[in-house]
Amino acid sequence: MNRRDLLAGVGVLAAGAMAGRAQSGVACPSVGAGVETDKAGGDFAGGSKVFKTSSGERTRLPNGSERLSGFMGTLATGEAAGMHESWVPAGTPAPALHRITHSEMVAVLEGELEFEHEGKKERAVAGDVIYVAYGTTHAIRNAGEGMARYMVFQVGKP
How many distinct structural domains can be found in the chain? Predict the structure, then answer.
């Protein structure tokens, strides 16, 4: 992961958290406005830190793609949040359409993806971000000729 990827990911996570708050009708508080940082849990317990995903191990999935789990936990503001990075070779079959019970921001880092949702198909290329709203039935597949790599930031219960 380079600096560009990291900055894109941080922006995506922040946008996802704000989107989750907006969907729930909860106002977004100012930084430090009554937030109790000791309520964080899972990978977020103990406060601010660097997640060493660059040295993590990838898990090979049955369809030939690979996944690296970055983090999962509860933010001090109460939202569950997580991140994983995926590598999908060209020609890999798309997973079955599935419905999520959280929101996702998908930052496309390499290649080209096809995002199928609610009866539509959209293309996304490196540098684009896909927003998957709470409750959306969807699938994402590699639509290019080379490797596709993307990072998923999840806000809400998995």
Answer: 1
